[in-house]
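Why does residue order matter? Because the sequence determines the fold. Keep that principle in mind as you read this record.
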Amino acid sequence: MKQLNFDFVIIGSGLAGLAAAVHAAEYGRVAVITKSASSASNSWYAQGGVAAAVDEDDSPEFHFDDTLVAGRGLCDADAVNVLVTEGRDRIKEMIDWGMQFDSEGGQPLLGLEGGHSKRRIFHAGGDSTGKAMTDFMLQKAIGTEQITFFEYTAAIRLLVKNGECCGVHAFDYTSQENIAICSQATIMATGGLSRIYCRSTNPHTATGDGVSLAWEAGAQLADMEFVQFHPTALNIPDQDAFLISEAVRGEGAWLLNEKGERFMKDLHPLAELAPRDVVAFAIFKEINKSESDHVYLSLKHLDADKIKARFSTIYSEVLKSNIDITQDPIPIAPAAHYMVGGVKTDLYGRTNITGLFACGEVASTGVMGANRLASNSLLECLVFGYRAAQAASKLKPMETCCCEEFTPIQYSEENENTLVEYKNKIAQILSQKVGIVRSEQGLREAIEAFEQMTEKFKPYASSYNLTKLRKLADISLLVARAAYERKESRGGHIREDYREENEAMKLHSIQERNKELVYKPVVKDRGQEK
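Structure:
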């Protein structure tokens, strides 16, 4: 078994992982492992922008309040306070490093998105903010001598002994080598899981790997029932869902039903700019009332030249389907977009396992609540990636690697068909029974199906494909179980048999391996943890 030693190992090369890597490199040698190219991540696809209260008409207090409203009672006040106060510092830091955000007359060109009461959304390249920020941080990381990238390398399991994480068992697709990468700190920044659904805005890599790794290692998971469906994803038969940014509605786009009527005006004071859970559910109901599988997004009433300039990527991509967004109604439907819950951390990315940290979408910091506020995700990557690196740097270096013997993984094409078959089954069950709207019966059926799959593939610990299937079933089971236990509708979790919010359920769901699901109270104190 090949063994490598670093001070820090970071799993994932999205914005959170890169932010953590750049800051950790100030304290030691950093390994960044990613199962695809280093440029492939959920962050890269983020169109909307990054939120920070910098305008003289805005304040962190307003941003704090907007986040709590969107989070439907499940945001931890201390985590949100960290986000909105330190977020401005992290944005300024990137600007000082040379990051170029869109500006006009020397001032940032701030946008408005659903759930925000003020214009506070920074953009870069119009609708390519995630790409621009991730590319910028990637180049900074590549230019940092202390950082080494391991591309096309999958994290198979976390190496944990006596409650302490001391590295990662990784598999190099290219060389077919099993590698033990040992470190004093392991930071997971693996992104979300939304690609395990049939219809998703996420890249193919977003399959919940970090959740599975953490779960197997004994880490606590929080609020896994909350999967956010983006309301407006392009809906063209036999094509992947393409994200139509929240910012499009922020600039005035309308949602229309089959009859060409605006249906959000009477449902929420903010109409099309209501929080995502409200808009996604409203679209879901409109689709169910009609014989169609979509509603429409219309920009026809807006300035065409401004729209083409502001949303150049969206304009070009949708035009490939012979739809001119400045003139034609855009067929859209909700798609799985963001994992709101995740690996439970404190305010410095620390998990309940010593030496294991998490940041970005894979983490549940307490910021997102039951429904992520638009454009808080990229900010969370920067703020908590930085914090995780600072906390990790304070760990004592290991004298020896605590790697125990483990089963090497092997890749073979012989199980490819089985992988595809069961991945599709899992996606269909999730989409039908654990989607935007859930029910007790559907969730029970999903739980039973996923339990059978986890048992079926448990014996094949050395097969990459079959291990992957077992992990996908595990992840899906975690989402379904949490959704079954939460007998209310709140944020991104909607139960047709429990339509109202239950005041007594303002609690975080917590899952841990070999233990019953429990609930823990929301943090109401804004004071920062030291």
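The chain has three domains: 2-226+340-392, 232-335, 415-499.
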